[in-house]
Structure formats: C-alpha cells, structure tokens
Specification:
The structure holds 2 protein chains of 2 kinds.
Chain A: E1 2-6, H1 9-20, E2 28-32, H2 39-50, E3 64-66, E4 73-77, H3 84-88, H4 92-96, E5 101-105, E6 119-125, E7 131-137
Parallel strand pairs in A: 2-5, 2-6, 4-5
Antiparallel strand pairs in A: 1-7, 3-4, 6-7
Chain B: E1 2-7, E2 13-19, E3 22-29, H1 35-49, E4 59-65, H2 69-86, E5 89-94, H3 95-100, E6 107-117, E7 120-123, E8 126-129, E9 134-135, E10 140-143, H4 144-152, E11 158-161, H5 165-172, E12 178-180, H6 183-186, H7 190-201, H8 220-237
Parallel strand pairs in B: 1-4, 4-5, 6-11, 11-12
Antiparallel strand pairs in B: 1-2, 2-3, 6-7, 6-8, 7-10, 8-9
Classes of the chains: A alpha/beta, B alpha/beta.
Chain lengths: 146, 238
C-alpha cells in the first residue's frame, strides 16, 4: 500500500504520472472513489507517460477510449455497466488478454469481474481540493472500499 | 461443393476450405486477439494456397458463439460481408459443437468447456460414436460446480475439450470420470466448424447472411452478483 496526499487536480495528475512509470504491459488499474474525486485527472497524468499525445476524457458514453501508446493504453468507464452481459458487450474481457494497460473508472460496478492482478487506486475526497490517494493490490472478493 | 469456414471465437483465428469429407486447406494464427487484422489476409493466403477464387465458394460457415465478444463479431461480420457480396449462403455453428467435431469419427462422450470467467463455464455435451457428434445437452452457461453435478449422472468417461478443458479437468478430476483432450484436439478449429457445417447441410439448407447472428450465452448467476454490488454502490453514491 502506498498513500499520497494531493491538494489540487494538477498534483493528482503528477501522482498519476509517477505511478504510470511503475506499470508493466498487461496491468489493470481500477479506480474507486466518488464523483469528482479526480479519477480522470489521475488518468490524464498516466497518459502523459504512456501516451503523451492522447487527449484524455472520461469515456462515460464511449465506455472505452483508446489512447494508443507504445503499449496500448485503454481507459474504461464502468459507470453505466450494471450487469455481466453489459460488461461482456464492452469487449472488456478481450482487452484483458491483449497485453495493454487498462485504467478502469467506477470499477466498483465490475468488482466481481476484475482479475487478481488488478492494482487498485482509491481516491478519497478529504477537503475541497484535498485528496488521499491509496494505491495497492487487494485479494479478489474482499470489500476494500467503504 | 466447396465451403469456406472461419473460427474467431477465441485466441486463435483460423480459416479452412472444405469439400465433401475432406479439408483442402487450413490456416491459423494465434497472436493475440487481433482477428480484425489477421482473418482476411489469412483467408486470402489460404485461398491462394489451394488455388481457389473466393467466388468459387458455395457457402460460408462460421462459429457463432459462445466466445469472445469481439472475436465472434469479427468472424460473423466477415462471413456476412462475403456471403452477401457473392450471394452465397451461410451456416452458423455453435462454438461448442465445433469443438465436439474435433472428435468426429471417434468414440467418446465429449464435453466442450470454455472459460466464461467469474467461476462460470460455457458447456454442452455430445455423444460421438464413430460418426458425427450428436447433441445431448443444449449450450449453457453454468457455474463449474453445476457442471460437476450434471456430469455425475452421465455414464462412462467424459472427454473434456476446449480452452476451459484444463480448468475443468482440475475441478472435475476427483470424479474419476473425466479425460483431458490432447492439445492437438483441444482447441477451436475452422476445419471442425466446416465439418459440423457439412454435416448440418445434409439435412438443412444454407441461411441468408442477414439471418446469421451471434449466439451469446447469458450468465444468470454472475449477473445477479454484479447487480447486487451496483445496488450497494448506488446507495453510497446517494
């Protein structure tokens, strides 16, 4: 487990960029934390390392954004995914096999379908601009997010 | 009659050209799930290899699921496009039935198993007695534990085939009833899809390209779990 404190979206982005340097092809990054916590800012920071030319936005309607990159970097938003059939029809399981790096917003919605190798990034709102970011792995099935 | 068969339901993209009772040629690539890039060049190379023009095909066969969501759509779309353009017919084959055809002509009870994730499998059961596999169960998506219960009532040894066969062998070997298909016969192949199609064509006609649809199997139990999680989370989101 690693803990970081951020005081602005820019700091959250910088933490995302530092985090991205530790990633390997095939890694899955699952975000937990509420609306406006900074998941997209964190992902934007990751993209500055993984795919510098990408324009990062939350794929709420597209479901998945493909940012390209040396290793493919995919950005999912599971906010609207409520069933395993929904999830299957995003092609998520196919992406898992393709060796790219995957960032998943609203991963709470697909908790039961995330592989054991998933890295969790929890962002908690502690003040207007303040965030506590906790990065770690978790055994599948345990309820880590309160 | 010449039939072109495609199989893209899992990691391997494969194509085959068949004529009555034999394979004229087959080609396959297992290089990640980039079927949209591999399947058509693969088929072109195959046709060149068997000195055949696409327009000489009398029809197309394809596995329609269960399997990878994008994989199935790529194979089915490719077949629909070619069949539509050439005004030829199609045959859709269950991926699980295609797997059972790996054992055509042998003598086994064959249980195809594909990993559907979240502890679930896509499965079915076929009886092979020296000829074409005969279906004993409908295709279904069930937990591995349910498959174990269901197989208890099946007599004799059961041959496990498919990309979930090894997983199933681990989970079911204590029943003392299961055999693991040898690697060469374990996975999806376009040739088997083609043989299954030829066998269906003995009694059925081709279907129109527009009638060809993927057969995704639903996962009822796991779906409920996901919904439960979502309900919990909606509350906390408030």
């Amino acid at each position: 487990m690693m803990n970081f404190t951020s005081h602005s979206a820019a700091e959250t982005e910088a933490i995302g960029a530092r985090f991205a340097r530790m990633l390997r092809p095939g890694d899955i990054v699952a975000f937990t934390g509420g609306m406006g916590a900074g998941k997209t800012a964190f992902t934007r920071g990751m993209a500055t390392v993984l795919s510098p030319d990408a324009e990062v936005s939350s794929p709420t309607f597209a479901l998945v954004n493909d940012y390209g990159g040396k290793v493919p970097f995919w950005h999912f938003d599971m906010f609207r995914i409520t069933t395993l059939d929904d999830l299957y029809s995003t092609g998520f399981f196919d992406y898992l096999e393709m060796g790219g790096i995957i960032a998943v917003e609203w991963s709470e919605n697909i908790a039961g379908a995330l592989p054991d190798r998933t890295i969790y990034v929890d962002i908690q709102i502690t003040g207007e601009e303040d965030r506590v970011i906790t990065i770690g792995s978790r055994r599948k099935g345990s309820e880590g997010n309160k | 009659m010449k039939l072109i068969a495609l199989e893209t339901s899992a990691k391997t993209a494969s194509a085959a050209v068949l004529t009555e009772g034999k394979v004229l040629g087959t080609a396959s690539v297992t290089a990640g799930l980039t079927h949209s890039q591999t399947i058509l060049p693969l088929m072109e190379a195959l046709l060149k290899g068997v000195s055949m023009e696409l327009s000489e095909a009398d029809g197309f066969a394809v596995s329609i699921g269960p399997g990878s969501f994008t994989g199935l759509r790529i194979g089915i779309s490719a077949v629909k496009g070619m069949a539509q353009g050439l005004s030829k017919g199609c045959v859709g084959i269950s991926t699980l039935e295609g797997l059972a055809y790996n054992f055509q002509g042998l003598h086994y009870t064959v249980c195809p198993v594909m990993d559907a994730r979240c502890g679930q499998v896509y499965t079915s059961l076929f009886w092979v007695n020296g000829g074409a596999p005969r279906r004993l169960w409908e295709d279904m998506a069930i937990p591995m534990t349910t498959l174990k219960e269901k197989l208890q009532s099946v007599e004799g040894d059961i041959m496990l085939v498919g990309d979930g066969a090894e997983l199933a062998y681990g989970a079911l070997s204590d029943t003392g009833k299961v055999l693991l298909a040898p690697p060469a016969l374990r996975y999806q192949s376009a040739a088997s899809v083609g043989f299954a199609a030829l066998s269906h064509l003995e009694t059925e006609g081709f279907i129109e390209p527009a009638q060809l649809l993927p057969a995704y199997l639903r996962l009822p139990q796991a779906e409920r779990e996901l919904l439960a999680r979502e309900a919990m989370q909606k509350q906390s989101k408030g």
